[in-house]
Each structure stands twice: as C-alpha cells, then as structure tokens.
Amino acid sequence: MSSKPVNQMLNNLSVKRSAFNKSNNPQPSGDHTIAIVDIGSNTVRLVVFDAPTRLPVPILNEVVVCSLGKGLGKTGKLNREGAVLAMKALSWFTLLTREMRVEKIVFVATAAIREAKDGKKFVEDVEKKFGHTVKVLSGTDEARLGAMGVFSGLPPLKGIAGDLGGGSLDVISLKKGAFGESCTLPLGHIRISEDSNGNTKTAEHIIRKNLKSELWLETARNTPLYVIGGAWRSIARLYIEQTRYPLHVIDNFTIETAEALNFTRLLGGLSTQSLMKDGSVASQRADTLSFAALVLNNLIQVSQPKKIIFSGYGLREGLFHELLYEEMKNKDALISACEGFANRSGRFSIYGEEIFRWLAPVFVGETKNFYRILHAGALLGDIGWAEHPDYRAIHSFIRVLRLPIAGISHRQRIMLALMVYARYNGKQKQYEVQQVRDLLEKKDQHEAYKVGLALRFAHLISGGV
After folding, report:
1. Which helix (H) or strand (E) holds 50?
2. Which backbone phi and psi does 425 adopt, to 5 degrees?
3. Please, are residues 68 and 49 in contact by the beta-carbon 8 Å criterion?
4. What pLDDT is stored for residue 30 in this prediction?
5. Cis (ω within 30 of 0) for the bond into 52?
6. pLDDT in tens, 261-306
7. Do the Cβ atoms of 192 and 294 come closer than 8 Å?
C-alpha cells in the first residue's frame, strides 16, 4: 500500500512538536485559573478550572445544597432559608478564590433566580456584597451552554441534549456542530415534585403535557439523547451499581432505549426510603430522584431516541469552553488532555508525538478513530515510569481507565488502558483487567495488545532519546 494515505493521516491527526510545545505553554490571555460560580435552583457550586486548556480540569469543586427554588412554584419567590445559606456559601467561595489567587471569576445564575419575583433583588445583593457581576442565564442560554459542555468533549453531534436542574428542564437539538430548536420547561426535579404535591400520577400528567407541547422533539427520533445534570447522573450511577457494570465512569456511559425506559419507570415508582436503602443514592438526591426519573422516562417516550448517553459535562464546562480562544477550541479534547498528562509526567526528551509518527505507518488502513486512540496511547506510553516495576502495568491500567479525559467512549477508554497495560508487559489474567476486558470484542482486545507491544518496543529501542 502506498505511504501517501498514511502521510495524509499523520498530517491530519498529529500536531508538530512546535505546536505541542505551544499547547502546553499557551499565552492567550494570562488567565491560569478560571472559577465559575453557578447559582442554581438546588445547589450553589464553585468550580475552579486549571486554564487555559482544551479540556477543563477541575482543581476544586465545592457545592452547597441551598434549595433556592424550593417552594418557587407556589410562592413565586426564592426560598428564604436557602437565600441566607446561599449568601454564606458565596462568602466562603469568594474567600477560597481569593486565597487561591484565581485570576478570572464568573458568576452565573439559572432558573430559580430567573423566575423568582425577588430574583433581581437577590442578584443586586450578591453583586453589591461580592463585587462580581452575576449573569442570569435565559432558558435558551442554559440549553445551549449545557449542550456546549457535551460538544466540548465530543466531535460534532446529531440528536438532542436534555439538561435537568432543580427548577427547569432545558432541551436543545444538536445538528452536527450547530444548535437547532430548544425549549425550557418547568420540569426540574424539585419543581415537579412540589407542583405535583409528591404524587407521581399528577407528576406524569404535568410532564407529559409540557413535553407534548414541543412537537419538534419528535423530529429527533432514532438519534442519540445526551443526558446532562446531577440528578440524571445519579440515575446512571444507580444503574451501574444495580447491574454491576464494571467501569464506574459516567461520561459517555450508554444505555439502550428499552433498558432506560424500564429502569426509569422502576425508579419513578420508588419511595425515598427505598432509594436510600442500599446507600447508592445520597439523601440530598433521594427526595426528588424518582421525579427526575419520571422526567427522563417521559422525555424518552416522546423523543424515542436511538440510545441514551450520559454526559459528565454540562453548563459549567460549556461556559468554560466559550471562554477559550479559538485556536484552543479547535483542538481535539482527548489528544489535548493526553498531551497535558504526558507533559506533566514525562521524563525523557522523546515525546509521545514522535512515537506516534514512528508507529502510525505500521497500522495501515485503520479507521480515523483507531489512529486517534493510537495517538493517545503513544502520548500516555510513559505514564507509569515512577511506579515500582512490579506495579507499573496494573497501576497504569487503572489510572488510564479513570483519567478525567473527554471525547472517548467506554470501549475506546478500555482499549487505551489495555494499550498502556501491554506496554508495561501486564499479564492478561490480572483480575482488574478481566473485569472490563470482556466489554470489548476479541478483535479490539487483540488490537490493543498489539499496539501496547509496539509501544513497548518503541520505548525499548529509543532509550527515551
């Protein structure tokens, strides 16, 4: 086979060393940390990101359950006790960001603040006390930023994204890199539990009435539904626990439509006590988790998606993505993250980029996704050098399996971990490996081990120089 397609692939997929160095030492704006304070209907959260980088890495993530939206549907006002607690939380967060010397702080508020009669007054009080402008997001803004958070880690998508908060459900259509129709509905898990007085039949009626008014949802049939929000992530965790799924990573965890319908229907009928029984659901989530399940169940019924994909990212990551400069936005999130890990843990003058360029012609005729995972494996090929030799393989395997990286499916994540495991001569009978390896087809397992041996050979003959 001609080397021309391989050379084209290398030019398309890889980054020249100068660009690699630039990506790890960018100077777009001088901001090295970005803090996002998210004043939501249920929680007030501070996330501090290490920046600028293509994939946001949270170096601090603190949350206080304030329940600002509790009672909003009946009173039209913010929960008084929640507002007091939110002010205390914001005082704490402001102190933390000051001590961390955070260079950029962004305050945003969502449904409860937007809808409450006294929401404007609350914002004025926050701005006066803490000296930061609070951007109150519209429903469309919420939907777009939540979907942008999903976009930030994946290639252009087609389907719909649903983001469930305490006060609202935001849904937006995804059209391969562009946003289409959207809606914001009063179906947040706290809001719906209160509006229905805790009655599941009443809740179902309210949910169906709201969803069926959005006729455009039916046009997304047979495309993926991307699920965003803490309550829905709790459902994914519970499903993982109940089914003993071996990989406890929420991002890109996928459930088939029929299975998701059955599981959310079951959860929708459970009491708070039943949900808390096995310890898998936090008490703060258990009170309204059954209503979150009902909303998801009915959204699936109306939109009839091909599959349900849970996202570990959302509004805050979408907002972070908007703050990046254009050159960084266009980078591959997976490769950028692996470059960062390689740069922090590397020990030699040789770069994973060089190893990738050297190995790629060996694997002629593979798919673009394969070369992408090969590229990531080459970048992470020396990640375990500081471990004791007896534990390098298994520790590297577990670490790669759980790395905070985006733009990668569970299947690809396991392949990547197996590549690095084989690079350190790991044994195939290792228990931790056997647990997840069977999620791959035999062909994928073979390809991963083959790449791992190639990486081992590359490091052996190069001596790191």
Report:
1. strand 43-50
2. 65, 35
3. no
4. 36
5. yes
6. 999 999 999 888 887 776 667 777 788 999 999 999 999 999 999 9
7. yes
Residue pLDDT, tens place only, 367-388: 989 999 999 999 999 999 889 9
Instruction: Indicate the helix (H) or strand (E) that contains 174.
Output: strand 169-175
Sign of CA dihedral 360, 364, 367, 370: negative
CA distances from 264 to 58, 149, 175, 293, 299 (A): 30, 24, 27, 5, 11
Strand partners, 213: none
Contact 143, 271 (CB under 8 A): no
Is the CB of residue 245 less than 8 Å from the CB of residue 239? yes
The 8-class DSSP code of residue 72 comes to H
**pTM of the predicted model as reported, rounded to 2 decimal places:** 0.85
Please give the average per-residue pLDDT across 344-348, as a whole number.
73
Q: How far is 117 from 120, CA to CA, in rounded Å?
A: 7
Residue 354 CB contacts under 8 Å (≥ 6 apart), including other chains? 17
- Report which residue type is found at 397: F
Q: Which of 301, 404, 295 is nearest to 47 (CA)?
A: 404
- C-alpha–C-alpha distance, residues 75 and 453, integer Å: 65
Which residues are within 8 A (CB) of 379 and not within 5 positions of it... i.e. 6 or more apart? 335, 338, 339, 341, 342, 352, 353, 356
Question: Tens digits of per-residue pLDDT, 22-81?
Answer: 333 333 333 478 999 999 999 999 999 886 667 667 889 999 999 999 999 889 999 999
Beta bridge partners of 163: 170, 228
Q: Identify the DSSP state of 220.
A: G
DSSP string, 355-380: HHHHHGGGSTT--HHHHHHHHHHHHT
**Phi first, then psi: what are they for 45, rounded to 5°?**
-130, 145
Which spans in 180-282 are helix H? 189-195, 200-212, 230-243, 257-268, 272-276
Report how far residue 84's alpha carbon sits from residue 333's, in angstroms, rounded to the nearest whole number: 39
What pLDDT was estimated at residue 21? Answer: 37
